[in-house]
């Protein structure tokens, strides 16, 4: 039986496979990184909430200078949040694709999902700007968009919870396959039994 990816190894593999859209990623690798990711976003989000609460408190008490300071800190938090999201976007996509590969699925759904997320960032301001207008077409479009996003989110959550496909597939070796050394990335299913894989993580479960 193959070794499972540890908490520390998942962090290293995430950055080593920054733009690796081939190969497979076991559940342990995926969920350990989700935990690492929460260490980045949860404290930052909590700090932003505290700052917003402090801004309202200072505004109610007429402390204008304190409010502007809180606003400045909030802007810094938002900038950091956006920068982190930009830095993690590609490796998060590659990890999700490899997790899909590990269950025998293609990268189509993860790519569509990320495109929907990007689209939301453009659509949300438009909807917010017209929230008081009776624009039925806009609201129908926004509703369909949210239903699509919700459906894809549920489907992806189910897939990433699935166990690895035990046998080898066209994306890499399965947990039941013979353990092999790291090396060249094969280009066909046949080559997985003859050559080695270029993914840094396919020998883990």
Describe the structure.
Keywords: Membrane, Transmembrane, Transmembrane helix. This is DUF805 domain-containing protein. Residues 173-205 are annotated as: Disordered. There is one protein chain. The protein is mostly helical and 205 residues long. It has one domain (7-176). It has helices at 7-16, 27-60, 64-102, 108-129, 136-161. The radius of gyration is 22 Å and the shape is flat. The longest helix has 39 residues, at 64-102. The protein contains five helices and no strands. The chain starts with 6 loop residues before the first helix and ends in a 44-residue tail after the last helix.
Topology:
Blueprint (H helix, E strand, L loop, with lengths): L6 H10 L10 H34 L3 H39 L5 H22 L6 H26 L44
């Amino acid at each position: 039986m193959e070794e499972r990816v540890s908490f520390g190894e998942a962090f290293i593999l995430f950055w080593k496979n920054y733009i690796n859209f081939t190969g497979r990623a076991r559940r342990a690798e995926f969920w350990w990184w989700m935990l690492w990711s929460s260490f980045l976003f949860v404290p930052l989000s909590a700090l932003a909430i505290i700052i917003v609460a402090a801004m309202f408190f200072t505004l109610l008490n007429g402390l204008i200078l304190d409010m502007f300071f809180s606003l400045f800190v909030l802007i810094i938090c938002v900038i950091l949040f956006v920068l982190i999201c930009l830095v993690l976007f590609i490796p998060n996509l590659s990890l999700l694709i490899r997790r899909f590969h590990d269950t025998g699925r293609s990268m189509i759904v993860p790519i569509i999902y990320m495109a929907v997320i990007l689209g939301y960032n453009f659509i949300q301001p438009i909807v917010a700007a017209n929230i008081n207008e009776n624009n039925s077409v806009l609201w129908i479009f926004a509703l369909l968009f949210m239903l699509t996003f919700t459906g894809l989110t549920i489907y992806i959550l189910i897939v990433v919870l699935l166990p690895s496909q035990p046998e080898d597939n066209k994306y890499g070796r399965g947990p039941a396959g013979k353990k092999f050394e790291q090396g060249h990335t094969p280009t066909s299913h046949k080559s997985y039994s003859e050559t080695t894989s270029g993914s840094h993580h396919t020998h883990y479960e």
